Amino acid sequence: MKKFKLAVFISGNGSNLQALINASKSSDCPFKIELVFSNNPNAFGLARASQSDIPILTLDHKAFKTRQEFDATLSKKLEQINFDLIVLAGFMRILSKDFIKKYENRIVNLHPSLLPKYPGLNTHEKVLENKDKFHGATVHLVDEGLDTGRIIGFSKFKVKKHDNYDSLLAKTHEIEHKLLPKICSLIATKKIILNKNNILINGKSDQKSKEVIF
Ligand code: GRF
What's the CA-to-centroid distance between 188 and ligand 1, angstroms? Predict the structure, then answer.
């Protein structure tokens, strides 16, 4: 079976990368991780990749004067690698317009909230502040806005009275570790087709089928 190739971008711990690595080890998994990229040379996720013999690429963003310069260098490096989809899994940098345009409909992001609620940082704090009944995680297509791209799928859980920052963080991670490999598998097997205006899920437009909910 020809596997669908992922380039996974990380900046830190990489527990979601680990979930993708674990899933990819099963023989019937439709995807493989072709590359792990990090803008942080000290990201623990790089060690996770190396342990599983996955090629790694690092470019320290601090060594570049502008975002454009960093993205252009990254873009050149990526031209030497054959991959189908970029997966932002805890990648803490905004990508420039040119980079997003070049990989249009080929970048997905994992975000720790039920988008469109709480784009950006500190999502668990906001859920607590607002006494939300539900919290969760979303995978969406990346566009030029901050966490604004078309939603592909999400997973949610009920917030309990005793929940605090640490418990929300742990519960969010737990669902993310299932959600991200699931969505990558559905994209790899073309059950989800990415298109800026109309994501197709099982052959239906997401207007009709809504997003994939787990
Ligand atoms: C995840 O919660 C993800 O939603 C967010 O960053 C976190 C990364 O965690 N974008 P990890 O590095 O995968 O452990």
Answer: 21
Find out whether the peptide bond into 116 is cis, omega within 30 degrees of 0: yes
Question: In angstroms, how far is CA 133 from the centroid of its own chain?
Answer: 24
Using one digit for the tens of pLDDT, what is the confidence trace for 24-51?
999 999 999 999 999 999 999 999 999 9
Task: Return the structure tokens found at 161.
Answer: 């009275």
pTM of the entire predicted model: 0.94
Give the nearest ligand 1 atom to 19 CA. 13
Domain boundaries in the chain?
4-205
Task: Take atom 12 of ligand 1 and give the residue whose Cα is closest.
Answer: 14
Q: At the top level of CATH, which class does the domain 4-205 belong to?
A: alpha beta
Residue 44 CB–ligand 1 contact under 6 Å? no
CA dist., res. 72 & res. 80, Å (int) = 13
Greatest extent of the chain over all pairs of C-alpha atoms, in Å: 50
Report CA(211)–ligand 1 centroid distance (Å): 21
Is 111 one of the catalytic residues?
A: yes
Distance, in Å, from the CA atom of 15 to the CA atom of 21, rounded to the nearest integer, reads 10
The answer to whether the CB of 96 falls within 8 A of the CB of 75 is no
Question: What residue has token string 């690429």?
Answer: 57
Contact by Cβ (8 Å): 15, 177: yes
